[in-house]
Amino acid sequence: MQSLIDRAEKLLTIQHEQLLFNGKLDYEVGFVALGLAYLDWKRGVSFLERVLAYMASMDYYTAGKTLLQPPLFGCLLAGFYELAPNEKAALDFLKKNYSQVFDFHSFLYRERDPEEDGLLVVTHPEEDLLLQNRDKRSELRPIPSVWPGGRQDPLFNALLVWSNECLLDIGNLLGADVTDILLWNELTTFSLNDKLWSEADGSYKPFDLEEQASFPTEGLGGFLPLIGEIPDQDQAEVVLETLKSSAFTYLLRPLPAEEDYDFPPDTRISIPANWLLYHGLWRFGMTAAATKVKTFSLAVMERYGFREYYELSAVDSEGDSEYAPAAALYLAWMGE
Predict the structure, then answer these.
(1) Domain boundaries, position 204
(2) 3-class DSSP state of 231
(3) I need a labelling partner for 59 at 20 to 30 A (CA). Which of 76, 109, 235, 246 fits?
(4) To 5 degrees, how large is the angle CA 190–CA 196–CA 198?
């Protein structure tokens, strides 16, 4: 186990610069920044602030020019605050970076909420957090380069609520006016449950504005609004029961020996998705299920290393064998 920790540390040290300067600015750099903070808080802060500065230079108003970043930054500010070596350093960090994250959320609600119901739209497959395996899937079902009307995605909006919650806490700590954040969050939470919750499916479903219809969610996206505490406790229990009876029930079991693999066809395991599911379950007090997801995920990384995704139904792991976000979340899990 120690050798894998050492490998994760080395990988983050080498690759974090490459991610930023190769223009790879998405959820990956956020997770990598968090992983770096577990190693060296000041170095993590330096990297995150460079990411935020790079974001500030982007033109989000030009369609097709810049992909939208998942709203993880409020959560990252809170995470860095908790990891800070002392209160003064933590407060200085928040004072320096709070307003930029607030401005990003303000932009999202101003420019990505066409229905004015608090549900932001994603307009490009690359803005979908869970589409790491799109190249593989495109052989079977081509994915368009854009979604013209936009999609109200459960995970994107759940991350927004989680990030809003963190900004509320930070704003209150700093004595800022948090009225806008409170109003945003109440509206988004209400609309997620009113429009995207499917009682029949026991999970959340995306809504396509061009088609004016819901459609089945792929991967774990329908379960991940747990991360923003979107459902009430009764709904959350339904979500857990749906997870237990779904094709993803293997996440709640020990990783079997390779010769005993019996995963569903096209099973692709994503460490970032599992990490979000773990924290969502934990937020609802479902600690036994959360621990099982964590144990399964750590076992996969310890067996196969750090991959973008793992295709275990084929008794083989696929993707990048040196995937920095997986290494970062491994360190985060080990440091919790």
Answers:
(1) 1-335
(2) coil
(3) 76
(4) 115
Q: Which amino acid is at 31?
A: F
**H and E: helices and strands count for the chain:** 12, 6
Give the tens place of pLDDT for each residue, 258-289.
889 988 887 889 999 999 999 999 999 999 99
CA 79, CA 141: separation in Å to the nearest integer? 38
C-alpha of 170 from chain center: 20
pLDDT band, residue 1 (cuts 50/70/90): low
| CB distance 72 to 32 below 8 Å | no
CB-based contact 259:316 (threshold 8 Å) = no
CATH number for position 191: 1.50.10.10
Q: Which residues on neighbouring strands pair with residue 306, listed in sequence order?
A: 322
What are the strands, taking DSSP E only, across 173-282?
Answer: 197-198, 203-204, 207-208, 213-214
Q: Which of 259, 275, 262 is nearest to 325 (CA)?
A: 275
What are the backbone dihedrals phi and psi of residue 311, each rounded to the nearest 5 degrees, phi first? -100, 80
CA pair distance 8, 331, nearest whole angstrom: 7
Tokens of 278: 């773990």
Residue 64 is classified by DSSP as T
Cα separation, 127 vs 258, whole angstroms: 34
Q: Which amino acid is at 43?
A: R
State how many domains the chain has. 1
Instruction: Tell me the HSE value of 82 on the side-chain side, using a 13 A CA sphere.
Output: 12
* Of the candidate ranges 14-23, 148-157, 284-293, the one whose mean pLDDT is the lowest: 14-23
208: nearest Cα among 284, 150, 253, 270: 150
Q: Is the CB of residue 105 less than 8 Å from the CB of residue 167?
A: yes
Q: Contact 5/306 with Cβ under 8 angstroms?
A: no
Joined together, the tokens standing for residue 200 give 């029949």
